[in-house]
Amino acid sequence: MRTIISLDDDLHRRAKAYAAKTGTTLTALVEEALRAKLAARGPRKPPARLPVFAGTGLHDGVSLDHMGDVLDRMDGLT
């Protein structure tokens, strides 16, 4: 699955350098770190109820197919 994440610039540089040094990809490094973190937490109870949000859907001109635009709007850039 393709996902967009935002990383601190320094963390991104360090992670890419580490991935290159160890002969892996940034994607594989992030996956490994997430698996390790989730495994360390142990099983988690699901919430008793899912939160419900009211609304009418996406704003005009917003498409989830263009997450960069969504993130820009969230950051107040557009």
Question: Short summary of the structure?
Answer:
By secondary structure, the chain is mainly α.
The total strand number stands at 0
Poorly predicted runs: none
Main sheet record: none
Going by helix content, strand content and strand pairing, the class is: mainly alpha
Would you give an account of this structure?
With 78 residues, this protein is an all-alpha fold. Helices cover 47% and strands 0% of the residues. It has helices spanning 9-21, 26-41, 67-74. The mean pLDDT is 86.
Structural features:
mainly alpha, 3 helices, 47% helix, single chain, 0% strand, 78 residues
Topology:
Layout: H1 9-21, H2 26-41, H3 67-74
